[in-house]
Fold:
Amino acid sequence: MTKNIQVLFVCLGNICRSPMAEAVFRNEVEKAGLEARFDTIDSCGTGAWHVGNRPDPRTLEVLKKNGIHTKHLARKLSTSDFKNFDYIFAMDSSNLRNINRVKPQGSRAKVMLFGEYASPGVSKIVDDPYYGGSDGFGDCYIQLVDFSQNFLKSIA
Structure:
């Protein structure tokens, strides 16, 4: 029998992109009827600025508009994540560098850009929408749905 999969999404502060990725991915898993394939779907940040906080209101707004809800509270990446997760997906190149900088030697986690699962013509980098307007959050949502669907196809 195939081992269940643990997936972690990582951005900078864990209030915009990664909690959206977690919620979108969970939704896509449910829509595909693949819940039994996953033990853990979570998100965190490389920084600790927002630990314990709910996602940015604009993240919650985009999720709600698309019928997705989350109860996520921000947390920081920890060394235990590298042994507890099969995939650690970074939202951008800076996140990826920061994750790899603290990755313990011998880690079992596959660390990569979530955007490696982008469809042709879709940017692999999920830009941080924090300092922009609501449009950036909508753009993130579109990318994250695309990446999620393609990742799920890749493991089917």
